[in-house]
Write a structure and sequence with these properties.
This protein is an alpha+beta fold. It has two domains: 60 residues, Orthogonal Bundle (Arc Repressor Mutant, subunit A); 72 residues, Glutaredoxin (3-Layer(aba) Sandwich), CATH 3.40.30.10. It has seven helices and four strands. A four-stranded mixed beta sheet has the order 2-1-3-4, with helices on one face. The longest helix is centred in the first third of the chain and has 16 residues. The protein binds FE2/S2 (inorganic) cluster (FES). The site of FE2/S2 (inorganic) cluster (FES) has 12 residues, from α5.
């Protein structure tokens, strides 16, 4: 456990009423710092907030934007919801898989990219939609535009 996590847990518990409501912001802050949430990290968070490890794991698993495995510097989420599927998200995903030489759910060997599916990202009017490090892009005309853009992590 990193020393600053205790301070962050205290801040979250002060700002939000109860350990349950402090959980999401604390997980978010630690993931921003560490890049992902390891099983050991989830156990530490449970200890910091006085929650069960099983509960913390279930919350972290429910929300797809919490990463339970290391991810690349750029995380590309391709929406596979209905509107995006009708607008060509399957082709977009296939094109990205070919360009990156990985399959959906994987990270490139150099750690540059992780390619993930996402359910409806609530931007259907921009279909097909993707996110690069949570920044919306759409409508995507060419998969390459997602891979050349400079995006802060
Ligand atoms: S289906 Fe893709 S944003 Fe809604």
């Amino acid at each position: 456990m990193k020393p600053e996590w205790k301070e962050w847990a205290h801040e979250a518990k002060t700002e939000f009423p109860g350990a349950n409501s402090a959980l999401l912001p604390l997980l978010h802050r630690i993931q921003q710092s560490e890049g992902w949430l390891s099983p050991e990290t989830l156990a530490d968070v449970a200890d910091l907030l006085g929650l069960s490890v099983q509960y913390v794991e279930s919350v972290a698993t429910f929300y797809s934007l919490y990463f339970k495995q290391p991810v690349g510097k750029k995380v590309v989420h391709v929406c596979v919801g209905l509107s995006c599927m009708l607008a060509g998200s399957d082709e977009l995903m296939h094109n990205l898989e070919q360009r990156l030489k990985i399959s959906q759910g994987q990270t490139t060997p150099d750690g540059a990219y992780t390619l993930l599916e996402a359910e409806c990202l609530a931007a259907c009017d921009l279909a097909p939609v993707a996110q690069v490090n949570l920044r919306f892009r759409g409508p995507i005309q060419d998969a390459g535009e997602l891979l050349t853009e400079e995006v802060s992590s």
